[in-house]
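To fix ideas, we close by showing one paired sequence and structure record:
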Amino acid sequence: MQSSTEEEEQSIILISDDEAEDMLGSPVMFVDPLEEPAPEEEKSEEVVDEECGLVITFCKKPDVMPHARYDCTTHKFEQTECDTCSPLENNADICDQCYCYICDKLASQCENWTVPALCHCNAHNKSKFWRDRHDSSFSGVLVTFNLQLTDIDADLQRGGDLLQKFIEELCKEYNKYLLGEEVLPTQHECFCFPKLPPGKCDVCISHSIETVYKYSGIFTLVTRFLNQAEKENPKATAVMFLGAAKEIAFHKDPSLNCQNFDSSSSLKIAVHCLLQRITTQLQRMLVLCDFPRSLHEMFVKYFQTISLPCHCFGFSNSLNVMPWDHVLLTTVLKGQNVTGQRKTKGRKVSLWECLPVIEARVERLVDQKNYKEVVHYLRAVKCNDIKGLRYLQDKIPFYLCKSGNFMDASNSLLFAVNSLACCTACRLTASEFEVYLKMFRTGSVPKGNDILDPGVWTAAGKCDFFLKHV
């Protein structure tokens, strides 16, 4: 039964109970009765969806809300992991409501929207690289290290502050590098092989004005930053080194042709040299510095997240340094494992470390006067740098003398470890051999950790076996 009043006739629609039951579970559109009806020209044709029972009698174009550039429905967006050289496809195009993902302001107000080496127009939230940039722009660069607030002390904070300033300077210098330098073919150096003096190479002269890209400015800036980092406390140094490694790993060479530059001007050679210095220093720090276990693991994981270029893949696992409390290492140091091998879940694992790590372990053990552990370690460890490892192993007889084991020292000195190598005595100088004779005769050793230390000698035990057996 339907009823209505004259006052409610235009604002209330009454239906019967039967009609109400039929509409339960069906889509219903509520219309504000106070809204003025749209003009005739704005009304759309009536659309009926028989399946849902929905009738659309009016539609209105929605207002565009503020959105990040990658969510814009007006302009297509091209996604890549970390492209900062130049805008991709139509990424630089914007609508009135596009926001910069990095700056968190209108894209039209972003000063770095299309600037080479920054290119905020390419930023999106599906890339870890751009997410880290977004987070660091508000919370500081330390947020990219996944550090808890309770873990950030004064040293880490200082390292983060210095790294943030360096990144800003590096972006400007990288921008200059991407722009390149235009020079006449008779003025720039020859890029061919063999390299000829400027203006003497017919191939180079045949080209018109050429753009050259020299990485030397960035190489100098990064080198100066690394020099500064080495003067800081270990935690700050580690943060600064890791941050620098991540930044230079993203650099790309815009030149299409191979340019025969020196080591500091060629991007591939320069980045490789810088990463070699960074990883070597970090390897030593992970061995020599007593970082908390959580911080040690965080540094290693952070380096593993860096997307290294193809010419630097050799550094991928360079920070996988075995901690001091590792089972294999501790059994070797105690002399319980003389081979440096053990089986883990049916797989043979060997004590194999790179030379900088071995040097750092020997340095720390010697400073702590743990000469027996040094000998155990050097006899068991393996290394790709055979020559460098042999140089360290030649000091085993001296460390045995320092521990008072002169018998074993004489055997190590005069007899080869295997038939393929000469004995240590073959590589001694006359002065070193004389020192060994004195140690065997007197049972004393130099007080320092150098066999040719001119300082005071101290007794390490009685030893007259050399005179009896030789």
The chain has 16 helices and ten strands. The longest strand covers residues 341-344.
